[in-house]
What does this fold into?
Amino acid sequence: MPSLLPWMVLCVLGVTSLTQADQYSFSSVVGRASGLQYATEGDGHITSIRVWDAYGYIAGFQLRYAITWGPVYGRRIGQATELELTEGEGIVQLSGKYNYRNYIWQLMFVTSRGRSLVAGQPSGSSFNFYPTNSSSELLILSGRVNRYGITAIGAHWGWST
It folds into this structure.
């Protein structure tokens, strides 16, 4: 009689890989497909967010991973709106407004502790991004940017290491 151990190992590995694959999700890009592509990156959790809005639309943003600020995507103009996260807090929702002809007009980041950062004006079509796994948090923002501001945005969710 053949041993069941190899089949049991394969079943456990299959379930484990399905569980790991389920921890990551992507919220499709909204906005205009013009400008240069961007994707944020950093080591560790997102610990702070800065957003600049100009004339009502989102001109730029910057994320801090652990203790290191990443580059500004878009441009710095006027006063930044900033949200510093506390230990163990993550971004679990990103909502806003966009106009497919030009810019992202509003961004609202919501944390796992119910705090939020809102920047820009509530004008245009709405979007609401969140992870498919309730244990996940925002890892990466991607989209497009031109010299005046953010033209498109998408969100990547998962577990940060």
Q: What stands out?
A: The CA atoms of residues 23 and 36 lie 29 Å apart. Helices lie at 5-22. The two ends are 44 Å apart (CA to CA). The mean pLDDT is 89.
